[in-house]
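pasting for the record
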Amino acid sequence: MSNVLIVHAHPEAKSLTAALKNLAVETLTAQGHTVDVSDLYAMGWDAVADRNDFTAPVNPDRLHYAAESKHAFASGTQTPDITVEQQKLLWADAVLLTFPMWWFGMPAILKGWVERVFAYGFAYGVGEHGGERWGDRYGEGTLRGRRAMLTVTIGGREPHYSARGVNGRLDDLLWPIQHGILFYPGMDVLPPFAIYQTDRLREEEWPAVAAAYRQRIERLFDDAPIPFRKQNAGHYNGQQVLKAGLGVGEGGTRIHLIQPGDPAESSV
């Protein structure tokens, strides 16, 4: 059995988002997995990345957050709340982020969790640079070997988030999270579970939603992840630009998905 971390970001314990989080805990526990939940609002999580994150700053007169983050992680002088969340990520075999889409992204408290917990040396600034290799990122890194999935509740209508919808494709809106936050430090990212028009969901519609979500959670360790291209697997050149002949027929962020007929990725 596996360990699963759920990072939950909704201020209302009776919300649909919270109900999905509770269902995930129930389903995973019934399967025999061990589950831990970081309920950010209930924890009173500090979402602000600032000088208070460093107990022994290198330069107390002028804050350079990345440099201080690197020093604090390497020297063990991060604040305890950051260290605890990092240990949870290292413990986990899979990570679920459950949140409502607010202003086309995650709530500020969840973004602040990422900004503080994904420290230099932990989630970025990892690995050697040289030749076409720019460190261990995008498919490699500290969190490699783990799975991740987003559970997103959305107030708008599904057609608005389609390829020609006025809000743009949902996958494009979630790209900074799925590719830039989760895949960047190495996690395999599953397609998201999204529910639309959540503020109009009727009680009689909940059983169908719950059944669909339960099925996705039960297959957390079986479903195929989004086929993002790995940075160091031969598809990008020395400037980290996709090589000619790849991504043909696609546009936007979709060129960074492995396509049928693409040459196999090879380890570098």
